[in-house]
């Protein structure tokens, strides 16, 4: 988070405790009390910023900080057996800050350790991954008024984002955000859990000194056999742990159809373009974004996505999500313009966007989806697979291994995603020809953002190959989908690699090629195998 600063907070400020929620009785915007070190003039932030608020986390860091606390991984049976307590009940009372003592927590045994898990921290990790979900959770009727769900078929559900909804459509550009929102909206247990936040606020919030106040609580979904990865304060003598932060939730079961479609009148689907047009690059992002807490965001600005420290999220079964639209927007094929968009604003607001707001709007994204879902994107490589089959059948090659990998999500890069928000994948094939080993790389460019040849490599050594592959993927993404020639030369020598263009086709569906094109593509590959 070294590229994100809160204007109200000093450099290298540690969150010691997270207290009650509050709002003025004559105001709809909620804040959350914080115990900070060093002390701040205003010891609170708006509710929109919950995705980045965890105990012992450092705000406005000027250097790297080691994650605080004892690291623990455990698997639960079911949340239904958990006890409800307050953090003040933690056996080692001296380590609980005064602001924390009234805060609600869950208490349960895991790995023979008595776990004290703050309820807000579980909700943050499970449900409150962006500013919209954090704000809207306090209204139990919000989801019903902003989304409608229809079952198109037994395997397909459609989420209609209503025209009056304040949900930031920019978030639908990312498959991770779509998948989490799908789970909250459609899975009965997840939805009931999310809506319980607003119900508890209505039921147990109280008015005092011109403010409405509330100690956060909710009912979690059952989460059977879910694996947790946490950090916290572990006490050996009492074998108890006060959780600071959840970093990973895995094996989450979801009652959701195989495909979820998102529709809004303003959404556009991208189809592959043709021709030799140009692509204008997006505006350069400033080195640091300054979040002005409590300042209204302008609805006429395009949201800036701010990456909070991610919670690893893994569903036990993958489901596909996509945007659907009444109109299709053709993606541009060609080289980038020399002209770059203007510098994006450094000063932003994470509050709800309104007409006439002061600052450009920003939205948090705080999930890292590690669901095993690569099979959902394998069809993008059908044509490539036919070419490999032809190499085997017609040229005697042997496929030693095939794998599909997602390009990595990197700081200030977005080429890991296709224009439709789904992950951009890389096929890595190890193939043998005439007792020599080659590697073939094929990148999904079905959105037409660039033209990228298939890469054929003959490595000089397999030592450290997995690490070299990881570095190559990172450089490919950082270089906006240009093959990193220096890295390839280091791995293969000057003449040990070659880019092989795809067969020419005017079809907007890159997955369809005539049989003779497949044969010719394979023949060109085999020819290069004999010459490098």
Automatic annotation (TrEMBL):
Pfam family, one: TnsE_C
Domain of life: Bacteria
Designated name of the protein: Transposon Tn7 transposition regulatory protein TnsE
Residue span(s) of domain TnsE C-terminal: 379-525
